[in-house]
Here is the input.
Amino acid sequence: MENSSKWNTCTYETPIGSVLLSSDGSFLTSLRYLVPAGFTVTNVADAVTDHAARQLDEYFAGKREVFDVPIRPIGTDFQRLVWDMLLTIPYGQTRSYKQVAQMAGNANASRAVGLANNRNPISIIIPCHRVVGSNGALVGYAGGLGVKQGLLDLENGSLLLGL
Here is the structure.
């Protein structure tokens, strides 16, 4: 992630660890786990990152199921299509990679869906944690499988974070 004058980037502490929130001033463009080694954060928050932080607080307190932060994820056409499909997965539910591929119009694109999930620039808000293996097993997550399980548990009411 580039840290230049066109991005407002700040760290935000969540119950699952530090994340970087980035905005172009109008849209949230990134929510990434952990601050990379050697990355200097100037912590320039703006109205968009502040709005995202408030909604994340509500989400972790179990009081928000849908985000309305304006987002602009940067990716290929296929990646953006997959991310749009992820936004349709209801809170507390999961879909398999194959189901998401079918939703995106190509039942044979499970691996491509996995790659798009891996490149999701706005984790949690674009809920890639709701995508699981065809057998229901947790598979891959940028924040780690423990975080993925924690987010799913939070959404199923068996774990309340941030209280």
The mean pLDDT is 86. The first strand starts at residue 8 and ends at 14. The chain has five helices and five strands. The radius of gyration is 15 Å.
